[in-house]
Amino acid sequence: MPLLNRLGLGSGRNAAVESGFPVARGAAWPSPAEIWPAPSPGKQKTGLLPACANPCCSSGWLHLLRSRETPVFEGGWCCSPECTLERVKAALRREMDARGALRETHRHRIPLGLAMLEQGWITQQELRAALAAQRAAGRGRLGEWLIRQKSASEEMVTRALGLQWGCPVLRMESHSPENLTVLLPRFFVDAFGALPLRVAAGRILYLGFEDRVDPALALAVERVTGLRVEVGLVEGSQFRPAHGRALEAPYPSAELIEAATEEALASALARAIEEWRAVEARLVRIHDCFWLRIWRRRQAGPLPEPASVRDLIASTAVE
Ligand SMILES: [Zn+2]
């Protein structure tokens, strides 16, 4: 199936939300503040010879003759296109392995109606009426029916969803989605219903969702951006217009890669890293996508210059 359909709009929102994290938080890579604007490893030649990051590099002393300073992949300089490819292959295998472990985790969530009943926010009669209306209509979420029947306010339903997901309710105040679209590809904002809300103290990204949080996406964004990601829910009437505006805003250039095999995918990603002379590139997996972000220039802060980053997105449905 073409990736666009797989990502696709509507269905992605309902993609199984995985709970738990495949990789220890904060263990992956240094934060941008530590990396940028530090010089790339290839530049650190004062007295010390640069070492190729490919543990199986066979170029030996030959790499000293190479004058290139890029690319850098996941913090390590690659002396040749062959070494870049080897490192991308290893990263792809790492992400594939993490997928198996993640699928097994499943957390039970208390039903929304029950959570609200327990809090005393609705009565049994109100819950029964909303469930009956939902059943009769054959559509709509329970929370929407409770609001429509004036049994609960939108604020209460969002608070109950927060209890259900174990996350806070976030406010939209002074939100400008246009400024944060550099943090993740439009495809993910659209398909996974995420909305970057703000970056606090240059270190923490608040990522909002309307009715279900997506820990897998949050972890991926954390690993790529180096920002700590805090997820939360936003009231629907505030979320939907802001999400719409975010989808209209410009994003860094992104490319969808269709590759039939893991080998072909690794080649395509490694080629992009080489061609773009990445000063840094990072690969993560989100649900059934791989996301490679390439930085072409060192960055002065947590929000990269849009023209200096490029995203590649590929399906994990490779053999
Ligand atoms: Zn090498």
List keywords for this structure.
alpha/beta; binds zinc ion; elongated; GMP Synthetase, Chain A, domain 3; 319 residues; 3 domains; three-stranded mixed beta sheet; 9 strands; single chain; four-stranded mixed beta sheet; disordered N terminus
What's a quick, concise take on this entry?
With 319 residues, the protein is an alpha/beta fold.
Question: Can you describe this structure?
Answer:
- The protein has 319 residues and is α/β, with parallel strands linked by helices.
- The chain folds into 3 domains: 3-23 and 168-248, GMP Synthetase, Chain A, domain 3, CATH 3.30.300.160; 32-103 and 252-315, no CATH class; 112-165.
- It contains 11 helices and 9 strands.
- It has helices at residues 3-7, 32-35, 81-103, 112-118, 124-137, 142-148, 154-165, 186-191, 215-225, 236-248, 262-275, and strands at residues 72-73, 76-77, 194-200, 204-209, 228-233, 253-257, 280-286, 289-295, 309-315.
- The strands form 3 sheets. Strands 6-9-8-7 form a 4-stranded mixed beta sheet, sandwiched between helices. A 3-stranded mixed beta sheet has the order 3-4-5. Strands 1-2 form a two-stranded antiparallel ribbon.
- Helix 9 links the parallel strand 4 and strand 5 (228-233).
- Helix 3 (81-103) packs across helix 11 (262-275) and helix 5 (124-137) crosses helix 6 (142-148).
- Mean pLDDT is 81; it is low at 1-29 and 32-47.
- Zinc ion (ZN) binds at residues 52, 54, 57, 59, 63, 79-80, 83.
